[in-house]
Amino acid sequence: MTIFNVHEAKTHFSKLLERVLRGEEVVIAKAGKPVARILPVVTNAPQRKPGIDKGKVVILPNFDDPLEEFAA
User: Domain 1-41 carries which CATH code?
Assistant: First the structure.
């Protein structure tokens, strides 16, 4: 993790992005206090497949009937 002040970040933004692309975390500080982080975007997350659990969940016909223990 490397910390840059706002002026440095504005002046060298493209270089900071190159560092982030290489996997480095960059922190932007204002008056010496960290205010933002620039992180690489994770793109290797598995793709969701709709219907992957089809047939694993069964909803019975009486699903929305009142519960007996709460009947008044």
Answer: 3.40.1620.10
